[in-house]
Write a structure and sequence with these properties.
Blueprint (H helix, E strand, L loop, with lengths): L1 H116 L4 H31 L8 E4 H18 L3 E6 L6 E4 L1 H17 L5 E11 L3 E10 L21 H7 L5 H11 L5 E5 L3 E12 L9 H7 L3 E5 L3 H13 L3 E5 L2 H13 L6 E5 L7 H10 L7 E6 L6 H8 L3 E4 L4 H13 L12 E2 H16 L19
Parallel strand pairs: 2-4, 8-9, 8-10, 10-11, 11-12, 12-13
Antiparallel strand pairs: 1-3, 3-7, 4-5, 5-7, 6-7
């Protein structure tokens, strides 16, 4: 018991004896911690001072950059004003120089025409024709520059008026068809049957856009075909949206360069200018004009396969002028037996569709041999064809040979012959007269034109070879439609003319 008590007292006394050494250790630790804290504070202050110095440097650099940016902004504004002024000066220069140069150019071309009309020998005529061609080219370039300056100056406006769409398209197509024939190209113009003729829009700018696209197609197409298509995209009560397309089988445009062709003074390839000519502003102008019509000029092309340019344009129209709403004409053509002989399936179907809209009884064949067989069979069945619509370039024989045979052979029923063609070559009208054809129509031909031509063909006797004036052409058909429209739209006595009567005449 005494031993246990002694050991317990010794265990209590031992910690009391070691207490001073522990306190010394704690003090040393505290001193060490304090020193470390002081060192950390000193290091932090040094870093903070360094950071403040760096911040002052950054602020100085930022101030310099801000000043440079302000100077750059002021310079940019100054350059923008200078560029705008230079653009205005350029536009004024283009406008002025175009007008100034165009005046003597008109004189040069007028005097050249007078010289050509005078008695000159073949060599002089050849020289003058080259002068005339060069003058036309230069005058076209001046007009393009003038239009481009007006577009950039936002001074070009659409001249909206009543006009005949088919006349407008035919005017453009007729100018470029001859050039296509000279290059040996097939040329086709396809207007859908439901495309109306009397519309409201800007015929001049539409001609300009189509002219640019056709000129472009002719320039880059050495063989194959060029096709113009017009179709109805949307139809409303007072307006309609038409889609125009010009397709060719030319060299095409690579995908990476298709956007560049719409920029002024740009070509898809630098060598194009040397090989094909042109300065690259036609498509830029056409694109701007199409944009003014509320659409976009689009290009689909593959190198070596050709290109298709297409756009849409909105026009006003009057639905009461469609042919199906003319009961007098329909009653005369209803049940009329018509044979269509055309080598192209698409045009054959188009002619059949137009004749069906005027309630004619139509049969179609694709060549002269089958066409003659159909005529003989119809004659044998007691239901002869009264009219034969022939393609001027039939496979297996020309339309002129077939027309001559039909006029001489009574076994075919001797139908009236109407010759149609996409490319009105020189001398075809005379061959039609000699072959005994009653009419000769050049596309584009619409329902209205075809219906009036059939009426005129049925009302007139068969022409003789000597009676040149008896041949019905597209111009005589449209003179007839003009007279009919003027008669139907003429105001009664004491009435004021209506808006629809203002456009009875066709622009020439």
């Amino acid at each position: 018991m005494l031993l246990d008590a002694w050991m317990e007292s010794a265990m209590v006394v031992q910690p009391l004896a070691m207490a001073p050494a522990g306190w010394v250790g704690l003090a040393c630790a505290a001193v060490a911690v304090a020193g470390a804290a002081v060192a950390a504070v000193w290091v932090t202050r040094r870093r903070l001072a360094r950071s403040r110095a760096e911040l002052r440097q950054v602020r100085g650099r930022v101030n310099v950059l801000v000043q440079d940016l302000e100077r750059a902004k002021r310079r940019t504004r100054t350059l923008a004003v200078m560029a705008k002024s230079a653009k205005a000066v350029r536009n004024e220069f283009l406008s002025s120089i175009s007008h100034e140069v165009r005046t003597p150019m008109n004189t040069i071309m007028g005097m050249t025409d007078l010289a050509l009309s005078a008695a000159v020998d073949a060599r002089q005529q050849r020289y003058l024709e080259r002068v005339r061609a060069a003058g036309d080219t230069l005058l076209g370039l001046l007009n393009d520059l003038l239009d481009l300056s007006k577009i950039h100056a936002r001074r070009l406006r659409l001249d909206v008026q009543d006009f005949h769409l088919r006349d407008c398209v035919a005017d453009v197509v007729g100018r470029y068809r001859v050039r296509a024939e000279q290059k040996g190209l097939d040329f086709a113009c396809d207007l859908a049957p439901d495309v109306p003729d009397a519309v409201v829009g800007d015929p001049g700018r539409l001609r300009q856009v189509l002219g640019v696209l056709l000129s472009n197609a002719l320039k880059f197409t050495d063989e194959g075909r060029i096709t113009v298509r017009v179709a109805v995209e949307e139809r409303g009560e007072t307006d309609l949206l038409l889609r125009f397309a010009v397709a060719d089988t030319g060299i095409g445009v690579p995908a990476g360069m298709q956007e560049a062709v719409f920029e002024a003074f740009r070509q898809a390839d630098g060598s194009v200018t040397r090989v094909h000519g042109g300065c690259g502003i036609g498509l830029a102008i056409a694109s701007e004009l199409v944009a003014m019509m509320g659409s976009e000029l689009c290009l689909e092309s593959r190198p070596g396969e050709g290109s298709t340019f297409q756009f849409t344009a909105r026009f006003g129209w009057r639905c009461e002028q469609d042919v199906p709403q003319r009961p007098g004409m329909l009653s005369a053509l209803s049940g009329l037996r018509v044979l269509v002989v055309h080598g192209e399936r698409e045009m054959r179907e188009r002619l059949v569709g137009m004749l069906a809209l005027v309630s004619a009884d139509v049969l179609a064949t694709e060549d002269a041999l089958s066409g003659r067989a159909a005529l003989e069979q119809a004659r044998a069945d007691g239901r002869p064809f009264r009219v034969a619509v022939l393609d001027a370039h039939l496979p297996g024989g020309t339309a002129f040979d077939l027309a001559r045979a039909l006029s001489e052979d009574a076994s075919c029923g001797r139908p009236k012959v109407l010759v149609v063609t996409h490319a009105g070559t020189r001398g075809e009208a005379a061959r039609c007269r000699e072959a005994g054809a009653s009419a000769y129509l050049t596309f584009p031909v619409g329902i209205d034109d075809l219906a009036w031509c059939l009426r005129m063909v049925l009302d007139r006797p068969r022409p003789h070879a000597a009676a040149a004036s008896d041949l019905i052409t597209i111009h005589r058909v449209r003179e007839k439609t003009d007279a009919a429209e003027a008669a139907t739209s003429a105001p009664a006595a004491g009435e004021r003319p209506t808006h629809g009567a203002a456009h009875a005449g066709r622009p020439h």
